[in-house]
Amino acid sequence: MKRRTGAGRSIGVALILIWSLGPIYWAIKTSLQTEADARAKPAHYLPTNPTLQNYSALLSGNSDIAPQIRQSAVNIVIECGAATIVTVLLATLAGYAFARMRFRGRNVLFYAVLATMAFPAYTTLIPLYRIMSTFGLVNTYTGIVLVYVSGFVPLATWILHNYFASLPVGIEEAGLVDGARRLQVLWHLLLPLARPGIISTALITFLFAWGQFLFPLVLSSDLSTQPLTVVIAALQGRHVVPSTLLNAAGVLAIVVPAALALAFNRYIVNGLLAGSTK
Amino acid sequence: MTVTSSTTTPRPAESKIPAGPAPVRRSRPDLLPYLLIAPVMIFIACLALVPAVFTVVQSFFKVDALDPPTRFDGFGNFVRLAKDHAVVGSIGNTALYVVIGVTLSTLIGIGAAVVLQKPFRGRSLVIAVLILPWAMPGVVEGILWTGIFDPNAGLINSVLSSLHLSDGDAVLLGQNRLLTIALIELVQVWQIAPLSVLLILAVLQLIPGELYEAAQIDGCTPWSAFTRITLPLARPGIAVTMVQAVIATLNVFDQPYVLNGAANTGASVTMQTYFISFQDLDFGQGYALSLLITIVTLLISLVVVRLVYRRVEL
User: Fold this and answer.
1) Does A21 reach chain B within 8 Å, measured CB to CB?
2) Inter-chain contacts counted by CB atoms under 8 A, chains A and B
3) Does the domain spanning A64-276 belong to CATH 1.10.3720.10?
4) Minimal Cα–Cα distance from A124 to chain B, Å?
5) Which one of A152, B111, B168, B223 is separated from A205 by 20 to 30 angstroms, measured CA to CA?
6) Nearest residue of A to residue B17 by CA position?
7) Among candidates A81, A85, A34, A89, which has minimal Cα distance to A56?
8) How is the protein disposed in the membrane (chain A) (predicted)?
């Protein structure tokens, strides 16, 4: 009995690992090959004669591809970083107020925040584009960051609300006096305790932002703001770019999120669960 | 603000009140909470609620950059959409994406969650690896999977030819509609299933071990313990999982866009919305199609919750 469940679990774990890592392995393998090796028959399942030429072509090659990859990598870092900072800052203040303060209209306003999470993100794609276009914010970092923040701030507020609500009440009582001091209490007493929640929220927001494609595809028209995801998809659309180079570009785009997911998986898992259970 | 109020706030007494998250100030409205939530509310009002209202209202207007001015058009956009073969085809495609995606991600979610239900050495490492596909951009995952589906050097064709099952040059995407959609959806399932696993796993963690021990003493087989204990008690988690999957699959864009381009064999409704709005510049029809997707998403989510969700009391 025991042994059988053990064997069953080993098979299950093996399947999970193959399913999760298989496609990533195949992309890394391909990215380390020359196009001729990658297309060889019978196929090489290991990267025989591994080479970094695809990566050097992407990052410092003479073609027009390298500058595009470099600029879009800078763009994606700026956009994700700014969106994360703004989202976490705003959501911390609102999450704290919704969880720890009483005021008229609190429930109605909080439900309004939560209700926006039920709508599919693309409901607002066209109007957001037209609003940004009216204000001249298409193809600017500001436009993209504003849209990201509006998309991610409801979930972030919800996660942080749940973290603040789970902290013991007495903490504020001890230091609480009046308006100005309440912010000091938030800053000195509650924020340190809520740090795991803030880290979770920041990671999840950053990963969501990194994964965006359709919004920046619509909101950024040239290389000055296009993130890595848009540039790589455009490379793929050209059809003349070799598959090895394309896989190397894909690997470059997943290095950051994969590293974050592996290093901080506990925070991410906790945040996701805090954000999904109602 | 409150600093100037010498008469209203009974400070010394207040700090001794043991209960309640924050003291209630009845004497005058307390502005601080409104200040704290204001930025979030402004963002949501301007960049979520106003655009949503836009979508609803403009669905009934002719908003076409190539055919100005904007004018009321009743159900004109919806009628034109219904006559558009590409749109009708994409609705059928999307229905397939939803059915395949929700089924697969739920089954994988339940299966993997059961594997991970009991603690074992290395479980947290397995979970860390498991969430990798969730953390990565869908559009890049589409590109990674082109290397799996490639008609010449792809992993699937390579394995088939190494096993001498075929010549290894099968064209997997873009020819057969059902196969194309199933394979593209597999890529999306790769991305969304990790969240399904986590959500169901979280519910399974709440099931007391004694239930399984008692079942075993009563002669329950592992299978009947699974169908009579695990599945019924996991229903809240399964419901949340399925709603997440419905929202994701109904709005699928990145994977078909990268893996199948604009071809009719796999275009989704969201892709048609994009083409109509940003290539044909007919925003009115784009609004109408967005509105339809939103309504269908909300309706199906409600139905799933009604059918699957059961409050569990332990």
Assistant:
1) yes
2) 318
3) yes
4) 5
5) B111
6) A173
7) A34
8) Multi-pass membrane protein
